[in-house]
Every structure is written in C-alpha cells, then in structure tokens.
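Changelog-adjacent note: as of this version, every example in the card shows the full chain rather than a window. The one below runs 179 residues end to end.
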Amino acid sequence: MMAKAAMIPALMILLAGAAPGWAEDAKPATAQPAATQPAKDTAAKPPQPVDVESDQMEVLDKEKKAIFKGNVVAKRPDVTVNCDTLVVDYADTQQPDGTSKTEVTNLDATGHVVIVTAKQKVTGEHATMDPKTNKLVVTGNVVVTQGATVIHGEVLHADLKTNQMDMTGGRVRGSFLPK
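Full-length structure tokens:
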C-alpha cells in the first residue's frame, strides 16, 4: 500500500521546510578538491510543497523522525528524489511570536539514490542534507550528469547557497563535450 505524505498535513508542513533545490546546486569541500563546478545562482525561493510516496511510512514522534521505505519518490516542483529509504528528522522550534513550528533538521536518503533537477541528475548510494546549512553530501559511486557532461567520483559535496559542487574521495573522472 502506498503511503502519501499529502495525507498527513503535519508531515507536509515538516517537509515544506526543506531547502528549495536539494541537489540543484553545490559548494567546495574541505582540503584539495578534485573537481569544482559552479552552478547557476538562484534567488531564495519560498517553501514549496513536497509530495512523498513510498511502500511504507512510519512516524516516530518521540524521536522526531519520519521514515519512508520502499520505492521512495519525493517530489517538489523543481526536484525529484528517488531512493530505497528516506529518513526525515525534524524538530519543533519556537517562533518569535510564541508559536511553535515544525522544521526539518536532516534528510537522509539511502539505497539507489537518484536526484533529478531540470539541469542535473545525481546518483549515488547515500545522500544527506542539512536544510539549515543547505549542505548536501552524496557518497558511493557518485555520478553527476549535466547535459553531455558526466563526472564520476566517490563523494560529492554541495552547497546550495553558494551554488558550487566539489567531487572528492579518490580519482575523479569526467567526460566533457565542448560547445
């Protein structure tokens, strides 16, 4: 049976706090980056709805965690994430007006991760994203495809604020087609 996050309004509010592009853009990692590529600069976007489908869903309210398992598809208007398991950590944060708001604190995708935007496709075995810092890390046989350009490596570090990415973790291979 398919579990849809749209059926759980609190979860939709939770996921709407995730960063706008998940893997659309990227940033350099720590020492000695192997390959760095700037992406287009985008203005801050308002929160967008997220639709999540999976074979199973479990909410662990005491741990502030939602777990989607089996054929997970998470879609926003500008990005789609497919994986075997998606764990969403969240927290209730106090607002200046005294109200409480549920915000995503971490996204963790494992197993056959595929992130697709209008311009890029990123694949790997594991991906984590911190929505507060807009940092994304994809590991395990990472492949980034943008048009005819294909880059292979072990670890992709992406900073969605600075719109740069960095591939590290051993030999990095790239295939570039000049225009």
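Structural remarks: Helices lie at 9-16.
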